[in-house]
Write a structure and sequence with these properties.
The chain is of the alpha/beta class. The protein has helices spanning about 60-75, 85-100, 130-140, 155-170, 190-200, 215-225, 240-250, 265-280, 290-305, and strands spanning about 5-20, 25-35, 40-45, 120, 125, 145-150, 175-180, 205, 230, 255-260, 280-285, 330-335, 335-340.
Length: about 350
């Protein structure tokens, strides 16, 4: 056996309820894969499927995960093809093996890993009442975020428009970039008219305006939209090359928003990015409510994939969501995520 393995389940608790158009999250369940080699070195990876959303949100998740982990222990290799349909498991096993081989949390050889560059990130405004969202928005702007992503679709659309109007009254698109994420909240019959109204506020993009699976309607929206459309949930479950090609060639979105836990682990995320680039489609990487263990892995992946001097803000701020998070050498300074694992600095999220 190459490695020893231990799988541990853990539940995290949100500091504040995280609201989306699909409901409100108050706690988060993750499984941690701990690998140990013959020299006593340990690597840790996080497997965090989203209930009701991840394609590998299955019964007996821990049993299936343990079986894949044991296979990795015996062979020393990750069974990538067998794990294509289990992206959150794949991501956790990839992270655990990298962590083991690199003896810690420094998962890339990049300026970010050396503590020389931060990764620009967007501030995230969760759904709530109008007053709650306004206060959260003010908080992000006061902290210096130059890109703010706002979850929409849960309160009155006119109230959401008013929030955007207030931001644009104070900040032009050159000073603050605005993204909105509908999480599939719009009906296909109303989506285009709502998108046209949102476009009046000089937004960067809208994520997943309609529910996944409405491919023809989505393709029409991407052709006719006055606001760039980014796909997120639409990519879930499309884990094989042929499926990805059909979607990208049929829908032709302007952007992809990629979450390794949902969209194929590290290797699958890179696959999506390569295929998108060939078609002139932009992309950025974001976390999916993982703890700091997953966030750290995603940040190093982001730095590796996009290289030095990342200009497009990434979605890497969710590590601050939990009251009982796991310590990692990560710190948000202004609107950038920094890694301090290269030295003994202990300022953690």
């Amino acid at each position: 056996m190459k490695y020893e393995v231990h799988v541990e389940e853990r539940i995290f608790h949100f500091i504040q309820p995280a609201g989306t158009s699909r409901g409100v999250y108050r706690e988060r369940r993750s499984w941690f894969v701990n690998l140990k080699d013959n020299e006593g070195n340990v690597g840790v990876g996080e497997c965090a499927p989203l209930p009701g959303l991840s394609c590998d949100d299955i019964t007996e998740y821990d049993k299936v995960l343990h079986e894949f982990a044991v296979e990795l222990c015996h062979t020393g290799e990750i069974p990538y093809e067998a794990l294509r349909d289990y992206p959150s498991m794949l991501f956790g096993l990839e992270t655990a093996k990298q962590s083991l081989l690199r003896h810690g949390s420094r998962l890339s050889d990049t300026p970010f890993a050396d503590g020389k560059e931060g990764i620009p990130i967007n501030g995230l405004v969760w759904m709530g009442t109008y007053d709650e969202m306004l206060q959260r928005m003010e908080d992000k702007l006061e902290k210096g975020f130059r890109c703010v992503k706002i979850k929409i679709g849960a309160i009155d659309f006119n109230d959401e428009m008013e929030l955007l109007r207030l931001i644009r009254k104070r900040f032009s698109k050159d000073s603050v970039e605005l993204r909105v994420d509908a999480n599939g909240a719009f009906l296909p019959s109303e989506a285009l008219s709502k998108i046209e109204l949102l476009a009046l506020y000089d937004l960067h993009s809208i994520e997943q305006p309609i529910r996944q699976g409405n491919t023809e309607e989505l393709a029409r929206l991407c052709r006719e939209t006055t606001l760039p459309i980014a796909l997120d949930e639409e990519l879930i479950g499309l884990n094989h090359v042929e499926q990805k090609e059909i979607l990208l060639d049929t829908v032709r979105p302007q952007y992809l928003v990629l979450k390794p836990s949902l969209h194929g682990g590290m290797i699958g995320t890179q696959e999506w990015i390569n295929m998108a680039e060939k078609r002139g489609i932009g992309s950025w990487i974001t976390s999916a409510l993982e703890s700091n263990v997953g966030l750290n892995a995603i940040a190093h992946l982001c730095a590796s994939v996009f290289g030095s001097q990342i200009t497009m803000p990434q979605g890497l701020g969710t590590g601050q969501l939990f009251a009982d998070n796991i310590a990692m050498p990560l710190e948000i300074i202004g609107d950038e995520l920094w890694y301090h694992g290269h030295n003994e600095k202990k300022d953690l999220l």
